């Protein structure tokens, strides 16, 4: 059927509403229990946004409104499918996935972060990805250990 007989403006308009998939990390998808729940919530919200977009009568507007939620549905469904739920870290004082680590930097700053999965990481909220350079340097260390990272020193104060 010719585009002239459809309600959409053009074939280009239809193609513009299909967004490329979000990039999936090549690292194992390790998650905390809270991280898995957050992924499930994001998937539910994306599906609800798709349903709301599908209620719009105008096909061009429906495609525009559903493009981002459809991409998110694909992303979060894949992240949940590949999620590897990690146990809580042991209380042995060794930095591991899920640990809350307090450390001081050689410039005098003291920081505290929980080491979590990539989708859960939010440095502003006090969590960092287990694949970040700082987390990688801290893994397996204990309170009192000093780690050299990029020419700077980090001393672990507490592991919880």
pLDDT averaged residue by residue: 91
Q: What share of the residues does DSSP label as strand, in percent? A: 15-25%
Instruction: Round the Cα radius of gyration to an integer and report it.
Output: 22 Å
Summed up, the helix count is: 4
**Amino-to-carboxy terminus distance:** 64 Å
Q: Give the helix/strand class.
A: alpha/beta
**Main beta sheet strand tally, sense and closure:** 5 strands, mixed
Can you describe what's shown?
By secondary structure, this protein is an alpha/beta fold. The chain is 36% helix and 20% strand. The chain is built from 4 helices and 7 strands, in the order H-E-H-H-E-E-E-E-H-E-E. The protein has helices at 11-16, 33-54, 59-82, 133-138, and strands at 30-31, 84-85, 100-105, 110-116, 127-129, 146-149, 152-159. A hairpin with a 4-residue loop joins strand 3 (100-105) and strand 4. Helix 2 (33-54) runs antiparallel to helix 3 (59-82). Residues 1-5 have low confidence and may be disordered.
